[in-house]
Task: inverse folding
């Protein structure tokens, strides 16, 4: 069974700090990687995607991918209380009959004001 | 209207009722998905459709019956549900099966079975 693993948290950070969310995946053939944010009772919202090794920055968000270590992370700079949510890592993995997007269980982030 | 639209947003139904959830996507995507998310639990994939053909059924009980008349519309027919079926039901779509470019989710239907 292919897996995407995340620490369930909660991860608590003070307002203005950097929040670091981590995700590991098991399939070396994985090709695309996503971070979704999900507020309580709401649907997941795509906030970052990354396809190549290295860093990708978008505003306060930075996604980092290391395919050799099978590791993808999300950094949130200047964390705000409005960033408090569950963050889902998703990995596009090759399957026997085509690819599949596999979701982690999510990390709860709490930003304290 | 753009994106993925789900109706109704909230639904309360008795265990003997029959109801349907509707999902419509205006993105020109070819694959659509139903997910279940119970309180404080991960997403559970229920059904996958590619070009309106079902390609995956993750051992979902027969009281849940999906229907995909075309690539833009997806339904989930519900009958004789149990209280443990109360959850957030999410529809998603992707450009191609497998989600290389990711999935777009609808706002979900909050279902309560009484």
Result:
């Amino acid at each position: 069974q292919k897996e995407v693993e995340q620490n369930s948290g909660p991860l608590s950070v003070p307002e203005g700090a950097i929040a670091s969310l981590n995700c590991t995946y098991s399939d070396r053939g994985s090709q695309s990687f996503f971070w979704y944010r999900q507020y309580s009772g709401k649907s997941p919202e795509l906030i970052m995607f990354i396809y190549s090794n290295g860093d990708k920055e978008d505003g306060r968000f930075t996604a980092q991918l290391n395919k050799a270590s099978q590791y993808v992370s999300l950094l949130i700079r200047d964390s705000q209380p409005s960033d408090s949510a569950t963050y889902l890592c998703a990995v596009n993995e090759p399957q026997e009959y085509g690819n599949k997007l596999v979701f982690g269980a999510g990390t709860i982030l709490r930003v304290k004001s | 209207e753009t994106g993925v639209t789900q109706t109704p947003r909230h639904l309360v139904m008795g265990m003997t009722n029959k109801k349907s959830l509707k999902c419509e996507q205006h993105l020109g995507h070819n694959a659509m998905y139903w997910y279940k998310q119970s309180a404080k639990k991960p997403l559970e994939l229920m059904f996958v459709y590619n070009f309106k053909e079902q390609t995956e059924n993750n051992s979902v009980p027969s009281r849940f019956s999906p229907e995909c008349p075309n690539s833009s519309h997806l339904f989930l027919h519900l009958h004789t549900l149990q209280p443990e079926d109360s959850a957030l039901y999410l529809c998603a779509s992707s450009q191609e099966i497998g989600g290389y470019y990711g999935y777009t989710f609808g706002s979900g239907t909050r279902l309560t079975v009484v």
Notes: Chain A has a mean pLDDT of 94. Residues 2 and 26 of chain A are 6 Å apart (CA to CA).
